Amino acid sequence: MVIANPLSAPLVHLASKGDTVRATLEGASGVVTVTDQSGNLQLRQDNFYVLGNSRAATNERRQGLIPLLLHPNPRQVAFVGLATGISASAGPALGVKETTVIELVPEVATAARAYFAPWNAKLLEREDVHLALDDGRRYLAASREDFDVIVSDLFVPWNPGSGNLYAREMYETAARRLAADGLFCQWLPLYQLTREEFDIIARTFLSVFPHVTLWRDDFYSDLPVVGLVGQFTPKPLDLARIRQRALRLPEWSKDPLFSASQGFAMLYAGPLSATPDLFAHAPLNTDDRPRIEFLAPRLTRVNTTDNTDWFTGASLASFYDVLDANWAKVSDPLLPPSKETNAARRAGTALYHYAVAAARHDDIAAARYQTEVSELVPAVVASGTNDSNTNVDSREQRSLTTIRQQAETLRQQLEEMQRRLSKLPGSEKMSDEPTR
């Protein structure tokens, strides 16, 4: 070790030659770095723990927008975990009176303030934003404030100490800090969880909140993020009002998926509280029995080439199908069935199926799901072009754009076919028949 001189080893490992280090900050919790990957700023801790990046700003901000839009009038909200600050910027974007952000690592807050201000709208410089450098669970336990919405970041389950953020005691603490009509949102990185771990977290969440719904943050086949939303007194959603609130967002925070009223409903996967039998076999995750804390580290030692059973791809698509089938049989107080909501929810599942099929290069299945999405939500597909005012190109927007373009190509091909058929003998008789 003396000969190797470990003190001379670099603190940051760069993935490619094109990466550059913008900042390195050392603290008691580790080394926090900001790297630049061809204009994409990435915030990392201890090299491998990616906290966020500027290219994913739309999806990161959506993790704040979804729970805040689910509440009819949030005035006081809290975010457990700051990272880049992009998710928490949804609070000021929607005109929330007071946004509290709780961050454990001071160096993360320093990096978010200095390097990610263009994407979080100078979040930490605002008078209506309060930064608390503290452990999120401890802060909520000591606080006497009541929050309309509490959002818990998608903490990597194998990071030491993160398992207790998925414990029943954490959810009970958050529930005590909610206002009468408040809601709590827990984001989950399914690409770092197995179905077994997801079931444990869902069962634990259901043991605290009587009404739990599942929301998609994206339609990525390989990197899906979903949110558990817990409430005590759910009220029916007004999709038209949600769309109006989304359209009033500042330009820097607009989400192209919310341009149409059905876009928001496409992210709704369904009520988990209506199907508790799906998780009845799963044990609870508690402080005394920290199952997530022990299960997750075991999976980090699996070689990436092995068939690790992450809850993504086909297995997640099948799970969405089950929720769709169950939703049709139950009474949902949050999103009552209607022609519009039924089509939007099915389109969301179909779009995820499309992403899975496209990743597998299954062109036949992908084309089938493309057609289904375009028929179910034509207004959403029509708005699938990239917004010139956004700095990122999210994958679901690219998927919707592809579907829209291919639908237009198909329409042109059908018109050309009809034109040729009209020149055939007996075309007058054929034209009187209904077009199929």
Brief summary of the model shown:
This protein has about 425 residues and is α/β, with parallel strands linked by helices. It has 16 helices and twelve strands. The strands form two sheets. Strands 7-6-5-8-9-11-10-12 form an eight-stranded mixed beta sheet, with helices on both faces. Strands 1-2-3-4 form a four-stranded antiparallel beta sheet, with helices on one face.
Description of the molecule:
The protein has helices at 57-70, 90-93, 106-115, 117-120, 136-142, 168-176, 195-206, 239-247, 261-265, 291-299, 313-327, 339-359, 363-376, 378-382, 395-422, 427-431; strands spanning 19-27, 30-37, 40-45, 49-53, 76-80, 98-103, 129-133, 147-152, 178-189, 211-216, 225-231, 268-271. The protein is α/β, with parallel strands linked by helices and 436 residues long. It has three domains: 11-51; 54-299 and 309-316, Rossmann fold (3-Layer(aba) Sandwich); 347-419, no CATH class. The protein has an eight-stranded mixed β-sheet, sandwiched between helices. Strands 1-2-3-4 form a four-stranded antiparallel β-sheet, with helices on one face. Helix 11 packs antiparallel against helix 12 (339-359), helix 12 packs antiparallel against helix 13 (363-376) and helix 13 (363-376) crosses helix 15 (395-422). The longest helix is centred in the C-terminal third of the chain and has 28 residues, at 395-422. It is globular. The termini are far apart.
